[in-house]
Amino acid sequence: MEPDVPTRALTEKTAPEIPAAPEAGPSPPAEVVEPAPAAEAGASTRARSRPREYAEAILVAIIFALFARTFLFQAFQVPTASMEKNILVGDHLIVNKFIFAPHHDGFLSRLLPYRPVRRGDVLVFKFPEDPRRDFVKRTIALPGETVEIRDKAIFIEGRRLEEPEVYHSDDRIWPDDPHLPDSYRRRDQSHPFTVPAGSFFALGDNRDDSYDSRFWGAVPAANLKGRAMFVYWSFPLEPSSQRSIREVVSIALNFFRRTRWERTLLPVR
Q1: Catalytic residues
Q2: Does residue 37 sit within a domain?
Q3: Is residue 56 part of a domain?
């Protein structure tokens, strides 16, 4: 006996037909952009920045050197024998420029060791009669003090000054004779002289061969460049504003043999 099922129910259902989409033509190939490798990009950036880094480093070094030379330290070459035997001709000195500089209470005054000039300081200063020239002498008398010279001996306020660093190349003592040239009479004798305010009485250690305050007076504080600290190089060569090629070659060939190495970094006292 057949089941009582409608004939329609046994008929296979077919899915409704979906109209086919029109066939599309071939699509153009997509443009592909390949990124540059990371290593190559980094190398290119470093290559471009390296010259700039060098330029910045050189600029900073130049600025620091100018600042240091202007405000902190400066090198000087000793041109004469007026400070022998302590400072020799051909000594190259490092000079502390900030120690006597005018200053106000503040950060720099606490950071940098400012102090006034003391007796015995070796000064580098602009020559009062020709500021284009630099002199190096030792401080003997301070502002307001009265200095006198008797037979080569120095007296400050009537008391003899002990000077262990002084060198006398001439044992003769010239009298205070007006008939003698000033170079002899003032060398060994001097009437009492009161140092003006803001000035210093400075003499060379080579007392018989020094052109100093005995002949042209006191050194104004405004002329001071600084205090000599130490010898950084010593070479027995006369100073000159312009060296010939022969002199430069001679220095190069004899640098190690003639440099006075024992004076390198020698403190100036």
Answers
A1: 82, 137
A2: no
A3: no
